[in-house]
Amino acid sequence: MTLFIALSLFAATLVFAVTPGPGTLAVISRGLAQGLWPAFILGIGLIIGDMIYLWAAMLSLGFIADQAQGLFDAVRYLGGAYLIWLGVQAWRSPPVQLEQICVQRAGALKSLIAGCAISCTNPKVILFYLGFLPLFLDLESLRMSDMLSVTFIIMAALLIVIFAISLLAHRLRPWLARGRTGLWINRISGTVMGGVGIAVATS
User: Fold this and answer.
1) How crowded is the C-beta side of 75, counted as CA atoms within 13 Å?
2) Where is 44: in which H helix or E strand?
3) Residues 6 or more apart from 91 whose CB is under 8 A from it?
4) Taking the model in full, what pTM does it have?
5) By C-alpha distance, which of 25, 20, 18, 55 is closest to 42?
6) What pLDDT digit, counting tens, does each position of 69-91 carry?
7) Neighbours of 47 (CB within 10 A)
């Protein structure tokens, strides 16, 4: 893989990551509701889902989508239902105190699962890795060193964007979370998360 291809892939991944979609909306809503690290952990879940499709594409397993359509639909419905449930929980939650939002270990696993569910059922992710990626790489002749390089490039780009979005939402959180505004942040966050769940289930 040449330096030009590597830089092009890095730039394309940055553009892909910042393009509005279920993943970015979920990270923003989680950042506004709970702070930096819960949002970033959800973003890590998104990246895990992305890596699943990346390696499926590099190993030429794109036919799975056709061979296991029923299983994919079941995962999509379950993932959508889970995200809707998270949205309802966020809607009903009291405002999170600002001193409590730095680390929320209890919700880390939930955030990882939610992020992975969003990514694994997001048509934008499927299109990028199984359709757009072959424009940069000859998937039939990739060596293991190429696969590891591609993984590093894409993961680095995704981490940069996810952290930046999480940090931006976190910075806005103290400014917005005053008085009853915290309740509305939770309700907006819950509505967005529920909307993402509906989009996932019906996409």
Assistant:
1) 16
2) helix 36-58
3) 186, 187, 190, 191, 194
4) 0.69
5) 25
6) 565 566 667 766 766 776 787 67
7) 21
